[in-house]
## 1
Amino acid sequence: MAAGAAVRAWMLVLCLWGAVTGDQNITARIGKPLVLNCKGAPKKPPQQLEWKLNTGRTEAWKVLSPQGDPWDSVARVLPNGSLLLPAVGIQDEGTFRCRATSRSGKETKSNYRVRVYQIPGKPEIVDPASELMAGVPNKVGTCVSEGGYPAGTLSWHLDGKTLTPDGKGVSVKEETKRHPETGLFTLHSELMVTPTRGGALHPTFSCSFTPGLPRRRALHTAPIQLRVWSEHRGGEGPSVGEHMSEYTVPLEEVQLVVEPEGGAVALGGTVTLTCEAPAQPPPQIHWIKDGRPLPLPPGPVLLLPEVGPEDQGTYSCVATHPSHGPQESGAVSISLIGSVEGPGLETLALSLGILGGLGTVALLIGVIMWHRRRQRRGQERKVPENQEEEEEERAELNQPEEPEAAESSTGGP
C-alpha cells in the first residue's frame, strides 16, 4: 500500500512538473498586447533570466534579457521577468522560451508556442440571383469574407442544411487571396445549382464562415430566398408582365448550329457551337453534354478549341425565357476523324511493306531457278559433243592397216 501511494505521489509530481515546464499553446489576437510569464524568475531585480525567440521576425534564435534594450519596440522584458509584445502581428507566430535561475540556484524553463488570429467581419453574398430556372445550372451568388487570419472556410446552406458540392447539381468555385501588406485573407465562394423540376419553389440560401483559429461559432450571412421557374403555369408565381418588357418577342424554336458542319473534326481542331434562340428579352443559354449540364456561365456560343477525345459526345443547348420556361434544342454529335484514319494508314503502309518484301523474295527465287535451269541445259549440250569425239577417236584407232601393208609389198624387189 505504502509503495503504491509513493508511486502515485511521484506520478503527480511529474505531471505537475510537465505542466509547468512543457510547451504551452498561446493564441493572441492580432494588434493586441501579449504578456508571457517567465516561471521561476524572482519577482524583484536583479534577475538571472534569458528569453529566446524563434519567430517570423528572426532568422534564428534571438536572445532578450532584462539588461538589454527593447527590441525595436516589438518586445521587451518587464521588471518581473515577463516578456511583453505591445501589438502582436502575424510575424510574431513562433516559439518563445525563457530560462530563469532563482536565488537558490534552481533553474526553470518556460516554453510557449504562439499563434495569432483575426476574426473577419460577417460574410455577405454579393451579386445574388433574382430567380432560378429548373433543369439548368444557375449562379446563386458569390459569398465573400474579408480580413481573416488564418484563412478559414466558407460553406453554403440550403434551407438551413449544408450543401455538399457533387459536380452535378451543386458546384462551388472557390478563390483565396492574401493581402500583400497585411497578410490577411479574402475568400470568395461562387455557388452554382441545378434545381430539379417539381422541387421547392422558394429555396432559401445562406453562407457561413468558420474561423481556422480560435474555435468559435461560425459567422452567417443574411439568407436570400429565390423563386424557381420550371414552366409557365397560369396563376402560379409572378405574372408574365412582371418579367417581360413592353416590347416582347416570344421564344421561337431553339436551333443549334455546329461548325464544321456535321461535327466531325480532326484531332486538335476547333468546334464552334452556336445556340440560336431569337426572343425579346434575350433568353439565358445553358449547355448540356451527354445529358448532363456543363458548369459554364450562360452564353449563346460554346467554343471547343484543340478538340481531344474527352470532347467527343452529344451536345445540346437550353434557352430559358420568363414566358416559356426552358426549351432544349436538338442534339449534335462531336466526333474525331483523325483517330480512325490514322491506324488505317499505318495498316495500309504495313501491308504494302509486307507485299513488297514478298515480291522481292519471289523475284530472287525466280532468278535462282532460272540460273539453275540454264546450267542444266549447258551440261546436257556438252554430253553429246563429248560422246561424238570419243566415238571418232575410237573409229580412228580401230581402222585396219591394210593400205600400209600393200604399199610395202608393192615397193619390194
## 2
Amino acid sequence: MGQPLHQTTGGGGSGGGLTFLLCVCVALLRVPGAAGSALNCHKTCICASNIVSCSKMNLTGVPSPLPSYTVVLDLSYNDISRLRAEWAPDELPKLHNLLLSHNGLHFLSSEAFLNVRQLRYLDLSSNKLRQLEEFIFEALGNLEVLLLYNNHISQIDRTAFSGAGNLQKLYLSQNQVSRFPLELVKDKSRLEKLILLDVSSNKIKALPTADLRELPAWIKNGLYFHNNPLVCGCDLYSLLAHWYIRKLNSALDFKDDYRCFLPAAAAAQTVPKTQVGVFELSTDYMNCSTFKETDREAFLEQTLILDCDTKHKDMSKTWLMPGNAVVSAGGNHTAKVLPDGSLQIGPVRPEDSGNYTCFAVSEAHNETLYVVLSVHNFTMNAGGDSLNTAYTTLVGCLASVVLVLMYLYLTPCRCFCCPDAGKKGGEDSIHSSMLSVTPTHEDPAPKGELNRHVAFIDSKELQGQNGKLNPNGEDDEEDPDEEAGMLGKGRRKKSVAESISSVFSDTPMVV
C-alpha cells in the first residue's frame, strides 16, 4: 500500500510543479505593472514617464494594449486611416491628451472615445474627415480643446458636440463648411463654456449678423470667420467695425483678412466678383455709414439695464455712478447690481444722467467700460403724445395750404377779368365805395382834398394809350361815372397812373 502511494505522490509532485510554473507565468502576465513594463517601451514608440510618443513610425493602427497610466499619447504623422472602437479595448482613465494629426484619418467610430472619457485635448487636424456625425463627441464630457482644422468637413450634425459641455476652444478652420454653426454659440444646445470658435477659411457666404451682434463680448472676442467668401453688405461692415472699436481680438488681429465679394450691382461698375476689404466699404465701395458707439438714452420712470459687456468671462464687476459714487447693496440709490454684473436703474430720474463706469477684474485681466446715460425730461408715453400732436399740427397746416390754393385758383373769375361786369346795374362793382377810406358823400371841401377814395383802374378805360394813362399828367375829358351815378354821386376824374400794372398793386391809389 505504501509503494503505490509513493509513486502517486511522486507523479503528482511532478505534475504539480508544472502546474505551479504555469500559474506563475499567467499571474505575471496579468499583473498591470508587468504588462506595462513589457509594452511600455517597445520598438515602435518612445516612452518618457507617462508620455507615449509613437509619432512618425509609419503605423497603420494604434499599438495595443497601451499602459493604463498614459497621460499623453502622440500618434501623429502616421497612416492610421480609421479609428475604430477597439483601438482602446481597455479604459485609459488618465489619458488627457490624444494627438492624431496628419494620419489620413477619414473614419471615426461612434464608440471611438468610450474608454477615454477623461480627454481634455484632442487633435484630429490635418486629416481627411468629411463629416461629423450625431453625438460623435458625446462621451467627451471633459474635453476642453478640439482641433479639427485642415480637414474636408462639409457637414456638421447639430448634435455632434452634444455632451461636450466643457469644450472651450473649437478649431474648424480650413474646411468646407458652408453654414455658420450658430447653434454652438446661441441656441439651447450652445456650448456654455465655449470662448473660441474658429470657422475661418471655409465656404461661408452669409452670416447671421443680427444674431452675432447680440452675443456677449466674451464670445465675440474669440469668434473668427475671416477668409470666407462673404457677400459685402453694410450690416457686415457695421458688425466688424463695432468689434474693432471694442478692440475684440477676432477683428483686431485679422483686420486685413476680413474680405468680401461685392454684390452684382456694385461689382458691375468695376470687375465682376470683385473681392474687397470689409473695412473699405464705408468709403470706397458701398458708402456704408461710419460706425460709432452710441450712448444710452432713457425716459423718466423707465427701468433701464446697463450691461458691463467685458471681453472675458467670469470677471468681478464694480459700478461707479456719476460723481464716482460706488453702487453698493445698502445704498439709497435707484441703481443696483444684478447677479450677472449688469446695472439696473429704475425708476429713472433726471439726476440719473451722467457717466457710469464698470470696473471688471479677474486674476489675469482688468477691463474698464464707460456708459454715458442721457435722461429725457418726459416719460416715454408723453413723448409719443408729443409726436402725435406734432403730426396732427403738420397735417392741419398742409390742409390749410391746400384750401388756400383751391380758393385762389379754383374759384369763379373775378369781376375785373369780366368785360361786361361793370355794365350790370344791379351788381356791385369792384370800384364801389365799399373800398373807400373816406366818406362817399359830397363834402363842402374842395374835391382835391376831401373827395378821395381807393379805386382800381379798369383796363377797358385805357384803350388807345398802350396801357398808360396820360403821360403828360393832364386831366382827360370828364366822362360820367356810371357807378357814381348809381350811388347818387356826381362826376369824378380819371386817375393818372404810370402803368396798368397798378391794378394789381398792393398800395391803394388815391384819386
## 3
Amino acid sequence: MDFTRIKNFIHGEWVEESGVEYVPLYNPSTGEAIGEVPLSSEKTSFEAVDSSYAAYDSWRKLSVSKRMRFLFDMRQAMVENKENLAVSIAVDQAKHISEARGEIGRVIEILETSCSIPTLLQGEHLDGIAGNINGRVVKQPLGVFGGVAPFNFPALVFGWFIPYAIGVGNTFIYKPSTQSPLFMQEMGNIFNQIGLPPGVVNIIHGNRSIPGTWYEHPKMSGVCLVGSTPTAKKMAEACGRGGKRSMLLGGAKNFLVVMEDVNWDVFIDNFIHSCYGSAGQRCLAGSIVAAVPEVYDELIERVLEASKKVTYGDAMDPDVYMGPVISAKAKASIEEYIKIGIEQGSNLILDGRNPDLPEKNQNGYFVAPTIFTDVTPCRRIAKEEIFGPVVSVMKIKDLDDVLQLIREQKFGNGACIFTQNQYYTEKFIAEADVGMVGVNVGVCAPHPYLPFGGIKDSHLGTNKVQGKDGIDFFTQNKVATIRVTPPAGVSEEGKKTDGDKSVRSCVAQ
C-alpha cells in the first residue's frame, strides 16, 4: 500500500496536524513502515472537544428516529465497504484477513442491535403515587464522551462505544491506537458519506496526553477505555478527580477448564480458536488450559499435535491461520515471558520463537504457537497477561480446585469449561469468579444484545459495553414528579365551579 500520513477528523474535515511529532506506522507482517501517525497537541484536542460540544445541543434535540437513520446508513455503508474495512485491519493491526472480516461482521451486528435504541431508551412511568401525583423517569444524554481504543480491536471497540453514545444523543471523540489507525480513517470517510453532522464524531490521534486533556475539562462528561489494567486504574483515578463518568475494560488471564467427559473434537477446535486466534492478542484469549488428572496426559498429546498444525504468516495470506503480533516490542515481551517460564521450571514442549518464515516476512513480528506444561499457579506465566500465542497447561484436582484458582486471580474477565455434565456446567456458571463464562466454547464473547465485560481488575468504572448496559452508561435518569391540577374554575371532579347551569342532556334539549 502507499505510504499514509494519518490525519485527524475534526468537525467533519480531515486535518493534517503540523508542528508535532509523528511516529511510524508499521505493517507487522513485514516490518515495513507504511505511514506515520501524529501525536496531536493539546490545542488540537481542545478543538475536538469544542467541536463535539458545539454539535451536542442540536444533535440531542434531533428526533430519535432521525438519529437511528444515521445508524442504519452507517451500517449499510459498512456492509458495502466490508472488504476495504477488513483489509485496513489486516494491514496495520495484522489480524488475519479472515478474522478481520469476522470483526467487521460483528460490528455490523452491533450497529443493527444499536438500532433498537428507541426501545431501550424508553423510561418509566408511575401513576397515582399520591392522589393526583404521578412520577416519570426519563433517560437523557449527558454531553461529550471520549473513547480510547486498543490496537487489537480497532473496529469492535468503535462498535462498543460510538453507536450507543451517539444513538442516545451524545457526541463523541475517538482516539484510535497509534498502531492501528487505518480502520478509523475509513470510518471518517463513511461519516461524511452518510452526512453525519460535523462534530458528532471527531477522531484524534496521539498518546496518553490526549485523554489527559479530558479529565478536568468542563465540557467533557465521560471517558471510555479498552486497554491494560494499569492504564484503566490511572484513568479511573483521573476520572474520579474530574467527576467524569467512566467505563474502563482492562486485562485478563482466562482459563479453559477440561473435565474428564470432554468432547475432544469440540475442545480442540475451540482451543485453537481461543489460544491462537488473533495471535493470542485479545482479552478473551485462552491462556491457561487446566485439566483434571483423568485427561491431563491425553490433553497434552492432543493440544501439541493440533498446535503443530497451526499455520502462520502474512495476515493477508488466505492459506495461513495466524498472523504476527503487533510490534517488535510485543514480540520481545512475549519472548521474555517464554524465557521466564523456562527459568521458573515449567516444561516448554513447543517453542514459538524464531519460526520459519518466507523471505518477505523475515522482518515481521512473529511468534508461533508455544506450549508450557507442568505449570503451577504461583509462576508468572500463570498469573500475568502475556498477550500472545503462549499456552500454560496446568493439572487440577477437580472442579472445586480450579474454581479456587480462578477466585484467587486478580483478573476476572472470562473462563470456559468443556464438559457434558450438567452439574459441572451449572456449578461453573454459578461459582466461576469472572464476568463472562463459556460452556463448550473457547471465546465466551457475548452476542451484541448482551453486556460484555469482566469483574475485578478486568473492569473498572460503571457499566459494561453493549446492550442495556451501553444505554445506561451513556444516559442519565431524570426523575419528574408531576401534580396534575385542574385549571381555574374547574373542580377536582372536572366540573365547572362558576355557576354554569348549561343543560347537557340530549333528552332535555
